[in-house]
């Protein structure tokens, strides 16, 4: 019906290419357009002005001889003022874009090691975008943005990289664990040293108190009982402690204390040995 009325409807975000007897006449904008077929006018085709995206997979090799697959995403659209160039000068724009992407990626990636490829993917994308924009503008296409959306090494290389990463993390964890154990041991040693120091102070004070108590007892007994010497008082004190100890042993059924030699007379022998040792120490 539209052809009979010499009218053509061009959709929004599209343009139409009008020819007259096989020669380009003009670009038709969106809306209802008059195309008088009776004088040889007709619509040769349509172009969309919408943003288009093309994902390109390119396999190449890095400087350290690792094969990787680089996926680039190209966002482009037709320039309105160059719609005729986009329609007539390129029969397959996607193939042309892929060719430029392959050329740039295979020129950039082989100069970089694998780790550098991951770090410099923005620079690679910028190089692709600049080259594409310079080449495709002449054909009526505008390159809006180029993204490197994926870098996929060989599976064996990826597995090796994961193992290296895991080993590095395990090494860091082992160092942290060893450092924590070191701190625990240092703190435990410091605690034990402090405990032994305080225990030593307690034992020293206990012994000092015992010595002070014995001294007071000896002086008091010698003063209240005429004719007794300090030796007699010490022998009597040791005898008393001996019987107190025997009473405590008998009071506990699970006691494991053993005295060798055993007998009341042994207390005097022990006292004599201690006294002789002290006298020899003073003489030397």
Determine Rg (CA atoms, Å).
52 Å
The backbone outline, from C-alpha atoms, is rod-shaped
SSE class: alpha+beta
Helix-strand string: EEEEEEEHHHHEHHH
Beta-strand fraction estimate: 15-25%
In whole angstroms, how far apart are the ends? Answer: 138 Å
Cross-sheet strand order for the largest sheet: 3-2-5
Q: Report the count of strand segments.
A: 8
The overall pLDDT average reads 80
Q: Largest beta sheet, briefly?
A: 3 strands, antiparallel
Indicate the low-confidence ranges by residue numbers. none
Q: Give the number of helices.
A: 7
Structure commentary:
The chain is α+β, with helices and mostly antiparallel strands and 284 residues long. A hairpin with a 2-residue loop joins strand 2 (14-20) and strand 3 (23-28). The protein has a three-stranded antiparallel beta sheet with strand order 3-2-5. A three-stranded antiparallel beta sheet has the order 6-7-8. The protein is rod-shaped and about 160 Å long. Helix 2 packs across helix 4 (121-136). The chain has helices at residues 83-88, 93-108, 114-119, 121-136, 155-224, 230-251, 265-283; strands spanning 7-10, 14-20, 23-28, 31-34, 41-48, 52-61, 67-78, 141-153.
Which descriptors apply to this entry?
three-stranded antiparallel sheet, alpha+beta, 284 residues, 8 strands, 7 helices
Question: How is the secondary structure organized here?
Answer:
Blueprint lengths: L6 E4 L3 E7 L2 E6 L2 E4 L6 E8 L3 E10 L5 E12 L4 H6 L4 H16 L5 H6 L1 H16 L4 E13 L1 H70 L5 H22 L13 H19 L1
Antiparallel strand pairs: 1-4, 2-3, 2-5, 6-7, 7-8
Helix pairs in contact: 2-4, 5-6
């Amino acid at each position: 019906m539209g052809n009979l009325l010499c009218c053509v409807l061009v959709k929004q975000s599209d343009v139409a290419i009008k020819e007259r007897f096989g020669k380009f006449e003009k670009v038709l904008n969106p809306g209802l357009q008059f195309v008088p077929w009776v004088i040889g006018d007709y619509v040769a085709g349509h172009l969309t002005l919408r943003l288009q995206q093309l994902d390109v997979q390119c396999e190449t090799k890095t400087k350290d001889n690792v094969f990787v697959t680089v996926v680039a995403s190209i966002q482009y659209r037709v320039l309105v003022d160059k719609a005729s160039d986009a329609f007539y000068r390129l029969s397959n724009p996607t193939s042309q874009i892929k060719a430029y992407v392959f050329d740039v990626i295979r020129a950039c990636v082989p100069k970089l090691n694998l780790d550098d490829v991951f770090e410099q993917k923005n620079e690679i994308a910028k190089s692709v975008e600049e080259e594409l924009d310079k080449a495709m503008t002449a054909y009526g296409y505008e390159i809006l943005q180029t993204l490197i959306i994926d870098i996929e090494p060989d599976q064996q290389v990826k597995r090796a990289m994961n193992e290296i990463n895991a080993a590095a993390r395990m090494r860091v964890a082992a160092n942290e664990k060893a450092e924590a154990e070191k701190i625990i041991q240092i703190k435990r040693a410091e605690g034990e040293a402090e405990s032994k120091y305080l225990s030593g102070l307690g034992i020293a004070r206990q012994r000092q108190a015992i010595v002070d108590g014995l001294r007071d007892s000896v002086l008091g007994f010698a003063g209240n009982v005429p004719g007794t010497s300090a030796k007699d008082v010490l022998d009597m004190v040791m005898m008393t402690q001996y019987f107190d100890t025997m009473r405590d042993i008998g009071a506990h059924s699970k006691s494991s204390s053993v005295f060798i030699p055993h007998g009341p007379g042994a207390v005097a022998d022990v006292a004599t040995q201690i006294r002789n040792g002290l006298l020899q120490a003073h003489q030397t």
